[in-house]
Amino acid sequence: MNLSAPLRVGMIRYLNCLPFHFELEKLAKEKGLSVSFLESHPADLNRAMAKGEIDLAPFSSIEYLTHQDDYLLLPDLAIGAGNFVRSVILFSREPLASLNGATIALSEESFSSVILLRILLKRRFGLDNIFVTVAQDPLRALKDHKAALMIGDAALFFESDNWIYKYDLGEMWKAWTGAPFVFSLWAVRRVFATENPREVRTFCDLLKQNLERNLRDPEVLLRNALGVTPVEKRSARMLGYFENLRYGLDREMIEGLSRFYALAFEEKLAPEPRPLEFFR
To answer: Which of 17, 39, 79, 82 could be stapled to 12 by a disulfide with Cβ–Cβ 3.0 to 4.6 Å?
Structure first.
């Protein structure tokens, strides 16, 4: 099968996206699908999608809410967590209760987690804070601020020489709402999907196949993709991380997403949500 329209696909460069993109390009070529990839962090992919520089991507879940007219969601695909997420962490030099009035650093690579943190601090803990955006550098951010929100691999693998508190936003959300949290969604630009439905459908099928294959044996995935063997210390952390992540968008995940959207709207951090629209 030869499909004409080339797909420009965004990829988050964190470990959590490895099951999506490892050997995806190879699989696409076998199916006659032309694909080019832009690998970056979530906030950068948000901008690239908005500018029309890429056609599909796993981007920040809140980005869909802010541009509902521009995107369609790919069915059954997401990145979320039912409880601990381990890679979205508020690092703090003081207990959470002592952060009222404090200036908190926010990773420039995040969007959904930034909105989630602001909601949690205000609505769940009754804190009033000032926020500044900083580079994704936990050590430097904590040197200059009492607390810092970091995401992705920088949060997952960060170890401090000094005592710090670690607050997992996935765990905090679940304890408060009882729902899982959806950090990223796969979306396609609405115009591109309308003009190239066959290509998008083929890519969506390949993406799901590749994800399922890579998640069947995460140890094999880590060895083949990153050269990580089970005897290495980081292997256990990575395997535990994959075990906690949720890559589907089932009813429970959609309910958690809807709750997040409603709170973001109530706090005037995002537009009013409408029913989710999926590529069919």
So the answer is: 17
